[in-house]
Amino acid sequence: MSVVVRRARPEDAPALRAILQDTLESTWLPQLSETAAAEARTGARPAAYVDARGLEFRVAEIDGEVVGLVDWEGDFVNALHVLGRHARAGIGGRLMDVAEAEIRAAGFAAARLETDTFNTRSQGFYAKRGYREADRYPDTEWNSGLTTLLLVKLLG
Question: Can you spell out the DSSP letters for 17-54?
Answer without folding.
Answer: HHHHHHHIIIIIGGGS-HHHHHHHHTTHHHHHHHHHHG
